[in-house]
């Protein structure tokens, strides 16, 4: 009895997380291997030389110009929408929620085609805008339209989870202390959901700056970094795209660091 | 009148939560709404604060109808069951929050915050964040925050229910002191009858969305207006009987093929002869009488005895079948003894069985 007891104490226990950790490690390896393989090409390519070309500089300029604008638009309209979705039940709410998810489900290239059918050059809106001197396709505005369409759901969904985690009794307390709904939003709801909203903004930015499918349909020109990468790849293969790809990666890494700095990234989970 | 609730009715969808509730609070009064969970207490608080728009009825503050006003335009302070301190603000900023809305200038704001933190004895915690405070300290900060803008009415919605017993009793004293010192008209919502009776000048007892009784704790305890109040306030024995005679009031108890009559002293019966009534008597108003076991229908066998330290609960099974509990401090009879029960004069409360469960508003005793 006692020896048995002792033996069981010395048996090495299988760690509880062995199975999920193994499965997760396989996926991580699958992420890491292409990444490392791609980076190993950098030696063969002249990165700085590649980035010095006027085409590359124009693409970087266009991307750094459009992605922040798209992110700002998505934030200005998306955060209020997220707040309403987190706080209010109304008939047709499911439909609204489905609409928010729609750009995530539709393949970006199809999303781009949808945008073309709405604001393309030969549609009433597109032709009117072109006549007024602000073409909605093949322009920086077109790039912003495509990026906003594809990337905005991220800030809506993340901010909504953030507002959902704020107890609405805190808002009631603020109201009873003399603050109207908008003042309460500024002083209580917004600061408390700040982490989630920032994370959502960052995700939206990362998605916008990397947007290719919809952008290609709506504004193949002027080139952004992703469309430039595509053009370089067609003409020069993998090595030709390494400089711009690394630049894009660097921007995305800065973005990622920002996410880490603002704490945990809330997952895309409803309250 | 500082606060007046007039025929307040509220439904969530088709679910009625509060039905035709009326009561009022005088200046400086502390009134408790007491009732089991789900009786509509919180809905009333939410309607007074303006977070719920009632289906019907009115809320009046200082004689002005505020039913349709948003919460920020009513001078109502609220403390909820769970902490609602703003976690991103310090204690001082939390207390100053309501003052800033009233455009009180910064210097004055500072001194008011000092005063209210001193009132709740938390001056040293002014720069702490809510997460650094204990549960009891958080409650006190919330009281200070709710009181600082000097509201017309302070609403306390189960403010002590989330705390442990010792802390609850200490904070109860604290609330009583703060209410005395500030003189703020207070509506205290609780399901705990001891808490309500210890704190309140008057009670509004609620059951199932209705008012079951309004009055001072002692009056409601001693002469409950409805069977619900009788059974909810303190412990009570309930049994049914038939009216035999109205002068002097005589009731018949029947069961197990046995029938006996009890003549009551110092009581009156409104029900007609032959009608069935429900009787309530408190365990402390019954006494075991071992010598008198002859003709009274209140005779039975001791079923069990519980020793509760300060007193004994003696359960007696009557010959007519009903069980009554007697509370006594003297040594109890043994299980199996046949005893008679003496009823203190005037302590039996009689309700007609068809009695409506809810009472109307009663005049405020002055």
Characterization of the model:
- The complex is a heterodimer of chains A (271) and B (366).
- Chain A is mostly helical and 271 residues long.
- Chain A folds into 2 domains: 1-40; 47-261, MetI-like fold (Orthogonal Bundle), CATH 1.10.3720.10.
- Chain A has helices spanning 2-10, 18-39, 47-52, 54-87, 93-105, 108-119, 124-131, 140-164, 168-176, 181-192, 194-209, 213-218, 225-236, 238-261.
- In chain A, helix 4 packs parallel to helix 8 (140-164), helix 8 (140-164) packs antiparallel against helix 11 and helix 9 (168-176) crosses helix 10 (181-192).
- Chain A is globular.
- Chain B has helices at residues 41-49, 91-101, 106-119, 135-147, 165-182, 193-199, 217-222, 227-232, and strands at residues 3-12, 15-25, 30-34, 56-61, 64-65, 76-79, 153-157, 185-190, 202-207, 210-215, 237-245, 250-255, 258-263, 276-281, 286-289, 299-307, 312-318, 323-328, 338-343, 349-352.
- Chain B is of the alpha+beta class.
- In chain B, helix 2 packs across helix 3 (106-119), helix 3 (106-119) crosses helix 4 (135-147) and helix 4 runs parallel beside helix 5 (165-182).
- Chain B starts with a strand and ends in a 14-residue tail after the last strand.
- At the A-B interface, helix 9 and helix 10 of A face strand 6 and helix 2 of B.
- Chain A: It is found in: Cell membrane.
